[in-house]
Amino acid sequence: MSAKPDRPEVDQDAGHLEDMPSKQDDDSWKDRPPYRTTDASEKFQKRHTAHCHCGRVKYWLSQEKPLAAKFCHCIDCQALHGAPFQWAAIFHKEDLHFEKGAEGLAFYHAPSKGTHYELPVKVSCANCHSPLMDEGRNMVLMFPGIIKFRGAEDKKHFDPQCHIFYSQRVVDLPDGKPKWVGLDKKSELMKDVQPHEAETIVGERKTETAE
Ligand SMILES: [Zn+2]
Ligand SMILES: [Zn+2]
């Protein structure tokens, strides 16, 4: 019955640690996407299913493809994901639906190093600690590694368009995709190396930008 709220513009900074603080003193966020629990009147299309490693947290995506997908090489992602870089796909909050709402989730507010719910917040499974998503003010960055893809075609929709914070990388990835010093379209593009020149970066990071 109720009209869908206007969709906000794509928030390039979604989930990034410099995001504006937005303190929540009540629990009203649990009634909003992506945490609100199933409402019988709601027609939510379950196009993709995602769940954490232990399977206690499950959610669905209503869209076939994300607004964008990226590899982030920033040092915060390296530390928080225990990986050389992070693969993220951007969705509107209402495109996600957790099976049990906020139940079983753990939150981490990186700017204050607190384990409470405050945007931007990193969301993981409270049991197995698989990273699930970063929630920004308007968007979420979910991690496609937890999607149970039905096939290669499905997965292709999540192919990243670019690399961000490439200046902080630990390994060269000469895939021909745009490589940004910081955020995409808000920083400079960097030079790609030839595949035979690719290496693990152990010393000073190269910061050569493209012409
Ligand atoms: Zn889990
Ligand atoms: Zn990052």
UniProtKB/TrEMBL annotation:
Establish whether keyword Zinc is in the entry: yes
Molecular-function annotations in GO = carbon-sulfur lyase activity; metal ion binding
Highest taxon of the source?
Eukaryota
Which parts of the sequence belong to the CENP-V/GFA domain? 48-159
Region called Disordered, residue ranges: 1-42, 192-211
Keyword list (alphabetical) reads: Lyase, Metal-binding, Zinc
Would I find Metal-binding among this entry's keywords? yes
Give the matching InterPro entries.
CENP-V/GFA, Mss4-like_sf
Give the family per the record: Belongs to the Gfa family.
Q: What name does this protein carry?
A: CENP-V/GFA domain-containing protein
- Please name the source species: Xylaria hypoxylon
